[in-house]
Backbone:
């Protein structure tokens, strides 16, 4: 199959230092992992096995890390417009100019990196999909309805020609990661950088490359939407996507690639799964549901696409997916019937781990898209 060209839109460099704060503040009242475990909510249970600190964390611990102090105080569930505003209001003002660099020197011993592996979730909100993976249902729609929808294919078709079919972009473009595996983290680093080789853009590059290798044309837009201002990122990224869709009406799929943030002021979590003897960072797909206020009538068609790629990734690479988060969220998913947000790893994962994940999920997404293709 001949290689399709990839079109990559590069934004101009932005020259003002970000004032955005780290997206982990939902648990500031809990200073250590035992505090998280003790305050766990009741959304379900997750079994976690820890690699380090064996004296404190022997064997495995059962707790729900998603809800820490009530259902309105949730971590590991993505961030939207309200969270942007809250973070912007609590961020310290910083008026320095110039690009936001990735550190070259690190403070040591300031906080603990906990390394662990997700196992299977349990609870009434979790749905097992037929061919692998799960869904976390945070809506009033019944699990039975979602399971039936998960068995339906999306209604769009992918064309194997030179017209772009997929847009990869980043609402929170500067989201970054740990430099390498270590047992501590530097609390002075807010895990954001404009260096595209060290932020989520490099994950998008990996995904795009694999989709291109399958003969599907891709646009990877690298516009920075969360810098110098974090607040308003989704509004800015919506305008970017709308313009690209207007110029390229052949696009069926829009993937907004992010990373998650799970931790406290002195503990961050580094989830991994070993695939072909290498560590990869688990992903979480977010598929929004309309509560009647979001003007998103095709949300269930997005969910079908989410279910398709969730099952493909889970089948290809067991353990690489966390449950799809199906919740009352928008995330610009009203713009196509194939719009999804994908969280690749957390801020505790390393650059190497998330880059490898990008390669893996890119291969699986390509397989799913080929299943939806029509031959010329």
Residues:
């Amino acid at each position: 199959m001949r290689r399709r060209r990839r079109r990559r839109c590069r934004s101009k460099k932005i020259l003002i230092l970000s004032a955005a704060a780290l997206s982990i503040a939902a648990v500031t009242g809990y200073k250590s992992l035992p505090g998280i475990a003790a305050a766990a909510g009741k959304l379900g249970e997750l079994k976690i096995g820890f690699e380090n600190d064996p004296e404190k964390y022997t064997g495995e611990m059962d707790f729900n890390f998603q809800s820490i102090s009530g259902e309105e105080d949730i971590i590991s569930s993505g961030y939207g417009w309200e969270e942007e505003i809250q973070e912007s209001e609590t961020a310290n003002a910083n008026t320095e100019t110039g690009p936001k660099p990735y550190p070259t020197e690190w403070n040591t011993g300031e906080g603990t990196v906990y390394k662990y592996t997700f196992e299977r979730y349990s609870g009434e909100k979790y749905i097992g999909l037929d061919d692998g993976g799960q869904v976390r249902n945070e809506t009033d729609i019944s699990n039975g309805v979602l399971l039936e929808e998960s068995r339906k294919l999306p209604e769009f078709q992918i064309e194997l020609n030179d017209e772009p079919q997929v847009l990869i972009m980043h609402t929170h473009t500067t989201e970054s990661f740990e430099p390498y595996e270590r047992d501590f983290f530097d609390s002075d680093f807010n895990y954001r950088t404009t260096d595209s080789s060290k932020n989520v853009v490099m994950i998008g590059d990996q995904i795009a490359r694999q989709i291109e290798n399958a003969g599907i044309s891709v646009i990877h837009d690298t516009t920075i939407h969360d810098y110098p201002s974090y607040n308003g990122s989704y509004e800015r990224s919506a305008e970017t996507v709308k313009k690209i869709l207007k110029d390229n009406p052949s696009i069926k799929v829009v993937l907004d690639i992010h990373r998650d943030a799970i931790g406290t002021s002195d503990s961050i979590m580094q989830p991994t799964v070993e695939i072909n003897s290498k560590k990869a960072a688990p992903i979480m797909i977010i598929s929004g549901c309309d509560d009647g206020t979001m003007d998103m009538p095709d949300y269930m068609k997005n969910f079908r696409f989410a279910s398709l790629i969730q099952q493909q990734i889970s089948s290809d690479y067991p353990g690489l997916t966390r449950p799809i988060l199906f919740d009352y969220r928008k995330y610009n998913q009203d713009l196509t019937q194939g719009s999804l947000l994908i969280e690749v790893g957390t801020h505790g994962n390393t650059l190497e781990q998330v880059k490898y994940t990008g390669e893996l999920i890119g291969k699986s997404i390509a397989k799913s898209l080929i299943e939806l293709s029509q031959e010329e």
Confidence is low (pLDDT under 50) at residues 1-77, 79-83, 88-96. The radius of gyration is 20 Å. The chain has seven helices and 17 strands. Helices lie at 33-38, 81-90, 143-150, 201-213, 233-247, 299-316, 351-371.
